[in-house]
Write a structure and sequence with these properties.
8-stranded mixed sheet; 350 residues
């Protein structure tokens, strides 16, 4: 945990939740499985929680490094309000340290505590002004600035705006339970199905992410899952098979699974981009093991982002880049009346 001499004033910061004081001015953060033991004037591994005199503060509250209106498909979410935009926001910081991080400039940085801040009321207003029916907490790891996300999700829910979490799912059970009542949808980045790979590539563990998925499913959150397929790292046929078998066994067969193409980034630039046949192999494995809605992202492959009825195979949603055409309504296949899981309108369908 790196010491930093920035002159943040704790009087202008929000005290963090989910921590306990220790002896000699240290604190232990209980937000995520890292359980950082943080000395005075030092940060946790996420870079945005700092100990001042035996009290833990969040540097990220209201200090955003990104704020955009994005197509919901970029999250990626394919069965949640397709064709709409979401107001997407992020503060700096992440509790993982993925060697292949595509947003490392902000995920591995400390939030700036000077300049413009955005209140939760600002976020609601901006979503309404931009015509976004949802707000997405994304780009970095929103769970590391949970205090702000909790307040924003409450404000959005009260205003009738949907809340979307895009996350690696690396969080302890109590903090997660606190935010679940305010979430409508989530895309969880399941980085691999190997604990040793999580340790080596992501500086984390697999089991807490699986536990997050199960808690979200039990809470009724609409879930989609992303798996970035990295050559020689997590593209083994047996590992992909085990991952899909676990998902089907634990009730995720109806949840869209997005296989995403890897491109060399950050500290993993010695590997090639994912070969297209590898992505098609993953696609075939997932379908064979019982995943009903499988997509491939970050490619120009044809017909791998469209939604088809799993019963009669009728085309239901056509996608090409950011162009979307929904060819059915009310979440029901017009050909065979199969109910297609998802949230297809502002009313909750799944």
């Amino acid at each position: 945990m790196n010491c930093n001499t920035d002159n943040e004033d704790p009087q202008n910061l929000k005290e963090a939740a989910y921590y306990e004081p220790m002896h000699d001015g240290k604190v232990i953060c209980l937000l995520c499985p890292n359980k950082c033991h943080i000395e005075d004037n030092q940060y946790g591994l996420c870079h945005n929680r700092k100990n001042f005199g035996g009290r833990l503060y969040t540097l990220a509250y209201g200090h955003l490094c990104a704020l955009h209106s994005d197509p919901i498909e970029k999250k990626p979410l394919s069965h949640f309000l397709p064709g709409t935009n979401c107001l997407s926001l992020a503060s700096a910081g992440c509790n993982l340290s993925c060697l292949n991080c595509q947003n490392w400039q902000i995920s591995q940085a400390t939030p700036h505590t000077k300049g413009t801040t955005f209140s939760c009321e600002d976020i609601v207003r901006l979503a309404q002004e931009t015509g976004c029916p949802s707000v997405a907490y994304t780009y970095t790891e929103p769970l590391t600035y949970l205090e702000y996300i909790l307040d924003c999700t409450r404000a959005c829910k009260n205003a009738g705006i949907k809340n979307v979490l895009v996350s690696a799912g690396y969080i302890n059970e109590q903090p997660l339970s606190d935010i679940l009542p305010y979430l409508d949808a989530a895309n969880i980045d399941l980085k691999s199905f190997s604990d040793s790979t999580y340790r080596r590539i992501n500086r984390g563990r697999l089991q807490p992410v699986l536990h997050t998925l199960e808690l979200m499913r039990k809470a009724g959150i609409w879930i989609e899952i992303t798996n970035l397929v990295i050559p020689t790292i997590n593209d083994d046929r047996n590992e992909l098979t085990m991952m899909c078998q676990w998902l089907v066994k634990h009730g995720f067969a109806d949840c869209p699974l997005h296989f995403s193409r890897f491109f060399p980034r950050y500290k993993m630039q010695d590997l090639p981009s994912t070969p297209l046949p590898t992505l098609l192999k993953a696609y075939d494995i997932a379908r064979k093991e019982g995943m009903k809605y499988v997509y491939i992202g970050n490619t120009s492959l044809p017909d791998v982002e469209n939604t088809y009825c799993p019963t009669c195979h009728r085309l239901l949603v056509w996608r090409h880049g950011n162009s979307i055409e929904q060819l059915f309504s009310n979440g029901t296949c017009p050909e065979c009346a199969t109910k297609i899981p998802g949230v297809w309108s502002t009313d909750k369908d799944h």
